Amino acid sequence: MNVLVLGSGGREHALSWKIAQSSLCEKLFIAPGNAGTAQLGENVNISATDFESLKTFVIDNEIEMLVVGPEDSLVKGIYDFFKNDEVLSEVCVIGPSKEGAQLEGSKEYSKQFMQRHDIPTAAYDSFTKESLNEGYDFLETLSPPYVLKADGLAAGKGVLIINDLEEAKRELKSMLTDAKFGDASSKVVIEEYLDGIELSVFVLTDGNNYKILPSAKDYKRIGEGDTGLNTGGMGAISPVPFADKFFIERVEDRIIKPTIKGLQEEEIEYKGFIFIGLMNVNGDPKVIEYNVRMGDPETEVVIPRIKSDLLNLFKGISNGTFGEQDFYVDEDVATTVMLVSGGYPESYEKGKGISGLEEVENSIVFHAGTLKEEDKVLTNGGRVMAITSFGRTIEEALSKSFDNAEKVKFDGKYYRKDIGFDLKQEQF
Ligand code: AMP
Ligand code: GLY
Q1: What are the tens digits of pLDDT across the range 233-257?
Q2: Ligand nearest to the CA of 146
């Protein structure tokens, strides 16, 4: 079948890499893609949110499967756009309906969903400009640190964690009355701080059945020792050592099953990935957030560990055989280290030549912000590429990722040399 992957990051390169290995894949297209995806299929110069242009392309190229990488296309309703179109309704879209995408598109929606289905999460309340004073009162009932979240999509920047009560009140006001995060913060969720270790669990579902994908932990801060500004993600490890069989069973019973049942009961169409951001609070998993797509860079460690044919699983979602399909995961550890442009996540330059890619051995290079110009590969974003490796231990996999991170060169290259620092001592 002909497949179109939407997006242009490391996540989409990793998804395309896996899909391209399937014997079911005839032609693979990526819109808009990057220099890495161009090695696997044909990049198409259409934005992932330009639904009308995508429609024309899908019809002209007889696309049967649309795999949606980023959240904004989903929150804008690409699933419904296809399902409600006479010609496009036969195309299988991997991603939730617009309603389902609200689990990521609105923090308040997702908190209410969790409350309705008894899914463990932090206590919360939500406020608007009109209820600012109630927001102040609510803050006074909590103990620090205070967690303030812009309700809508804010490109991963909409969460503030603040120790001081007066500062928390000022920030609440700035979010609600000065549109600190634009429209996204016209409503703010204030929630209880969860103290524990974070990890993510991923689920692929057809709306009735599900497969639990490998767990992963990402490293969001720019600086070593988890310091400095938040980024999209500087590296990831899979599996997470403390997420053992017993912990995952708890996640399945208390979170995954009620989530799928909740979607069914509320008749929310959902055929795609659910990314469950969790806090392990003394062995009890609590949901920090849902995302309605895979994580980046988590995809770069989760997908390579899946042994089953991913495109066949997607096909199963479309023809009703998903529930019967086997699902195998590699026992080995996977690690990824993200190379970023100097200055990221603040301002940085693009267009730097990348060299040394041919020297990489024993790792997979997933491109994120890259661009092919004639025979050159140039930097084209903050996060430039993710270097993924396998090993029997975290240390073994990481040493390959770090060796190859040195070999790839571009002006201003930076990467964290301590990915996995908090997990290494633990034995498998
Ligand atoms: P989010 O955008 O919801 O992923 O939040 C960004 C980050 O803020 C998360 O990855 C957590 O590290 C942190 N965070 C969010 N909610 C809480 C909470 N209730 N307690 C502690 N940390 C949180
Ligand atoms: N790495 C976090 C995310 O994709 O949201």
Answers
A1: 999 999 999 999 999 999 999 999 9
A2: 1
The string of DSSP letters for 310-345 reads: HHHHHHHHHHT-GGG----B-SSEEEEEEEE-TTTT
Residues 90 and 129 reside in one and the same domain: no
Closest CA to 271 of 315, 337, 305: 315
Give residue 72's domain range. Answer: 2-96
Q: What is the average pLDDT score of the chain?
A: 95
Residues 144 and 70 in one domain: no
Report how far ligand 2's centroid is from the alpha carbon of 223 (Å). Answer: 17
Count of domains for the chain: 2
Residue 304 located in a structural domain? no
Q: Is any atom of ligand 1 closer than 6 Å to the C-beta of 226? A: no
Tokens 């790839």: give the residue. 408
The residue to mutate among 142, 159, 217, having the most atoms of ligand 1 within 8 angstroms of its beta carbon, is 159
pLDDT above 90 (res 157): no
